[in-house]
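By convention, each integer encodes one residue's backbone shape. The lines below illustrate.
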Amino acid sequence: MAQTPTQRLANQKYAKREEKKHGKPESLIAKKNAEKPPISKWWIYVFAFLIGGGLILEILNLIFGH
């Protein structure tokens, strides 16, 4: 079964990525994956906006609410 051009390009990218790992200890290779946070930065910004916005609204309500 012959490879399609798309498969061939994907295999070349994979081979280059794997070639960079040759001769390096396993701990250095696995370290990159371990540093990834469990949630994306986008969600952190959304939560910070919601909490910060609520805090600002509560402060404004305390000052001008009566």
Summary: The helical segments are 5-21, 26-34, 41-64. The CA atoms of residues 26 and 32 lie 11 Å apart. The mean pLDDT is 85. DSSP finds three helices and no strands in the chain.
